């Protein structure tokens, strides 16, 4: 899909989630982009938190945030959304202004001057108070500008805010397109080893002959990787399927940190190393006269992102760590393919197979489970009541775009596919798990985020004796779609009503609907109409406001997004008193 087509598809997705006349397209765009970044491991579970304010003469802006489970890494997001349908450049001055407005918000929170200026009951006040409390313990802070325009600069110089380094990046429509279309995801990064390690990098090079790649084996100084991560950050890892998450606990990152601290000389013996792809290698002579890599163009770490980031964070947290004794084994693959599509397919396969021995997302591992295969079969065979349209179950990531590319070979065919199976009827595995768990009165699990919710959803498909639950029938599939429509219609309705934590409010409201009137709702009617009645939507709106009040009352000053994850929150919300359902709701028996 070309960039212009992708832009228009993205705008159509934004508009499909808007209520008529809703002024919050920017929130929807932010939500779409942040959720994508979370899905590919670039950030943590994001929360839309729309704030515009002023401090003295300074404008403050925030569109959302994401905080690691250990509260040691923070991402802030600020959106520059204009709803354009043509490729439009965004001046660096505009992105820098947005960055400054977000940094002012962060600085005021860090210094304790933000929370005290806000209404204590406001959602932003709880965020500001949390940031003030955890700021000293933060190990990584990033600010992302999200825009539907094309930015010339994708990153800016790191800034110092209240004693912390803050990395600044731009996720524009071009970068988003690279991610979602599986086009060339790596920036044109050039690494000069004469600069980062003082001389060419010693290596063994195998040209590759007639193959579409060559490769080199090397041992990269950990100091060089630390400098590269400091300079380029996540741009080094964009082709990877995961990002650095946490060094706490007993996981792989904790082990890497322990080796760096206690046995640096044995790091190369213990570590599996990293895999790098590159566009070009240029060679020179090392001090002893052997062949070495002078510089690499288009470098991308496709396996070993955790190792690279762990080296950086360990050295920053423990400055006395002796990286001079640490070497990291590296396989460097240089692309020779002339066809860009074949080249990127090769890069994708290298990344996939290089990571196959490491922990990957449960949603990726579960694609071939009988449950998901059966839901996909049902989505291909069960038509909507009009006998023409269908829903699309995206069992494998990217399969909807593959359908468009494979079968939409002419403009007319592409238009027909989009009419019969519009993007608004695409459901991912994590989407379905969210909708069903919300209806099954597990809003606390939904609030854990897409991946953790999916993990628990999959766990419950297997009984105590290890047997999987029966596969869904046609009738059960139609019920799934009805629950999907109810959740999505509620989300679309409620998004403009709540500028922060609307995802939590939506999940809890759907759970309350299921608790109070679920047995009386005829889901077949929602399937037949492919939507919910105005009367049911009005009832959902009423209960959503009551749910929001209960969430805030019981949170006792905690951030709603954190309180909503706890079973005690679920018990408090589902156990609260609500107004009686209105009469005349068509879906009620």
Question: Would you write up a description of this structure?
Answer:
There is one protein chain. By secondary structure, the protein is of the alpha/beta class. It is 45% helix and 19% strand. Strands 9, 10, 11, 12, 13, 14, 15 and 16 form an eight-stranded mixed β-sheet that branches. A six-stranded mixed β-sheet has the order 1-2-3-5-8-7. Strands 4-6 form a two-stranded parallel sheet. A hairpin with a 2-residue loop joins β1 (46-55) and β2. α1 crosses α2, α16 (429-439) packs across α19 (474-494) and α19 packs across α21 (523-529). The two termini are 46 Å apart.
Please summarize what this structure is.
With 589 residues, this protein is α/β, with parallel strands linked by helices.
> Low-confidence parts, pLDDT < 50 over ≥5 residues?
239-250
Q: Span between N and C termini?
A: 46 Å
User: What general form does the structure show?
Assistant: globular
Number of strands: 18
Q: What structural class is derived from the secondary structure elements?
A: alpha/beta
Radius of gyration equals 25 Å
The largest pleated sheet is described as: 8 strands, mixed
Percent of residues in helical segments?
40-55%
How large is the share of residues in beta strands? 15-25%
Helical segment tally? 24
What count of domains describes the coordinates? 3
Average of per-residue pLDDT values? 86
């Amino acid at each position: 899909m070309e960039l212009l087509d992708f832009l228009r598809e993205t705008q159509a997705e934004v508009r499909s989630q808007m209520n008529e006349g809703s002024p919050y397209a920017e929130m929807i765009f932010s939500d779409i982009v942040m959720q994508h970044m979370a899905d590919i491991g670039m950030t943590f579970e994001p929360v839309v938190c729309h704030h515009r304010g002023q401090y003295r003469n300074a404008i403050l802006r925030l569109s959302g945030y994401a905080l690691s489970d250990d509260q040691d890494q923070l991402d802030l997001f600020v959106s520059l959304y204009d709803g354009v349908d043509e490729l439009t450049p965004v001046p660096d001055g505009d992105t820098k202004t947005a960055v400054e407005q977000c940094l002012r918000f962060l600085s005021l929170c860090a210094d304790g001057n933000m929370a005290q200026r806000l209404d204590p009951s406001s959602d932003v006040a709880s965020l500001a108070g949390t940031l003030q409390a955890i700021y000293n313990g933060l190990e990584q802070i990033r600010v992302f500008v999200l825009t539907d325009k094309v930015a010339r600069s994708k990153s800016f110089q790191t800034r110092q805010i209240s004693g912390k380094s803050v990395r600044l990046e731009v996720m524009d429509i071009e970068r988003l397109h690279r991610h979602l279309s599986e086009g060339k995801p790596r920036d044109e990064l050039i690494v000069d080893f004469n600069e980062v390690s003082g001389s060419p990098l010693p290596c063994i090079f195998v040209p590759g002959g007639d193959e579409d790649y060559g490769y080199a084996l090397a041992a990269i100084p950990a100091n060089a990787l630390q400098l590269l991560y400091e300079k380029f950050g996540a741009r080094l890892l964009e082709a990877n399927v995961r990002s650095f998450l946490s060094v706490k606990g007993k996981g792989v990152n904790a082990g890497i940190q322990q080796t760096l601290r206690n046995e640096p000389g044995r790091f190369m013996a213990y570590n599996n190393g990293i895999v790098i792809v590159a566009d070009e290698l240029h060679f020179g002579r090392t001090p002893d006269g052997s062949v070495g890599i002078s510089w690499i163009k288009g470098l991308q770490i496709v396996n070993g992102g955790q190792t690279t980031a762990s080296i950086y964070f360990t050295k920053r947290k423990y400055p006395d760590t002796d990286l001079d004794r640490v070497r990291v084994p590296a396989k460097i693959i240089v692309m020779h393919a002339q066809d860009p599509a074949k080249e990127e397919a090769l890069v994708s396969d290298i990344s996939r197979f290089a990571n196959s021995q490491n922990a990957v997302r449960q949603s990726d591992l579960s694609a071939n489970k009988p449950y998901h295969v059966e839901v996909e079969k049902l989505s291909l065979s069960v038509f909507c009541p009009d006998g023409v349209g269908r829903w699309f179950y995206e069992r494998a990531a990217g399969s909807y775009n593959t359908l468009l590319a494979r079968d939409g070979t002419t403009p007319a065919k592409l238009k027909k596919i989009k009419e019969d199976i519009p993007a608004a009827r695409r459901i991912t595995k994590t989407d379905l798990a969210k909708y069903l768990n919300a209806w099954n009165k597990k809003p606390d699990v939904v609030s854990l985020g897409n991946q953790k919710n999916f993990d628990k959803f999959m766990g419950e498909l297997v009984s105590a004796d290890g047997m999987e639950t029966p596969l869904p029938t046609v009738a059960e599939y139609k019920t799934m779609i009805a629950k999907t429509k109810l959740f999505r219609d509620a989300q679309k309705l409620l998004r403009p009503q709540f500028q922060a934590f609307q995802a939590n409010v939506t999940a809890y409201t759907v759970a309350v609907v299921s608790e109070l009137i679920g047995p009386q709702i005829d889901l077949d009617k929602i399937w037949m109409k492919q939507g919910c009645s105005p009367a049911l939507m009005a009832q959902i709106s009423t209960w959503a406001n009551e749910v929001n009040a209960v969430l805030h009352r019981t949170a006792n000053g905690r951030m709603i997004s954190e309180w909503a994850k706890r079973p005690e929150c679920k018990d408090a919300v589902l156990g609260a008193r609500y107004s009686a359902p209105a009469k005349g709701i068509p879906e009620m028996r």
